[in-house]
Specification:
Helix content is 31%, strand content 19%. With 185 residues, the protein is an alpha+beta fold.
Length: 185
């Protein structure tokens, strides 16, 4: 549960990737301070393992889609184990109509991807995620269809919508507003 996480135990990163050129450049994605997932390190072995697990969850999510043939590179931007991770992946797309890079949001909430067309940096990606999930929550609360909204891997029931709304509020108040766990200024 998000409330149980110690915000003091977010992340200490040793290596940063700078001046990386990749297909995300066409969207002017801010890449200069993203951290290569293979270089994620916490203050101790347990935190490092948790960070790597979060990165693996994001990689597994994006590679579960048929339009993603493989991952070429992955970068962490926001990482709070047990709460949320925002990652940028450079992928081998299955076709020319698929973006070669995408943001992935995972954690103690439904996973999703956000295109770089709507988010140039991880905070914008998280804000877009929150907005899309808020729309889902409001549709469920109002008894409306969620068919045309962002896919969510939980049943469209009020009890799940309320749990998600609580998590979204905490993401908005702690991560977005206070930049907790944000690696990119």
């Amino acid at each position: 549960m998000i409330q149980d996480v110690s915000w003091d135990r977010t992340l200490s990163v040793l290596m940063r990737v700078r001046n990386t050129k990749m297909p995300c450049d066409q969207y002017h994605v801010q890449m200069d301070k993203l951290v290569a997932v293979e270089r994620l390190e916490g203050e101790d072995l347990e935190l490092t393992r948790e960070l790597q697990d979060l990165a693996r969850e994001a990689r597994d999510y994006i590679t579960s889609f048929k339009w993603c043939l493989s991952v070429r590179a992955g970068y962490a931007a926001i990482a709070i184990p047990g709460v949320v991770g925002v990652f940028l992946f450079q992928i081998e797309p299955a076709g020319p109509d698929v973006d070669a890079c995408t943001w992935v949001i995972v954690g103690d909430l439904p996973p999703a991807y956000i295109t770089p067309e709507v988010a140039r940096n991880p905070v914008e990606a998280l804000e877009a995620y929150i907005a899309e999930m808020d729309a889902w929550v409001e549709a469920v609360r109002g008894g409306r269809s969620v068919a045309d909204l962002i896919p969510v891997n939980i049943p469209p029931e009020t009890r799940f919508a309320e749990m998600l709304a609580t998590r979204l509020r905490l993401l908005r108040e702690e991560v977005v507003a206070k930049r907790v766990g944000v690696l990119v200024p």
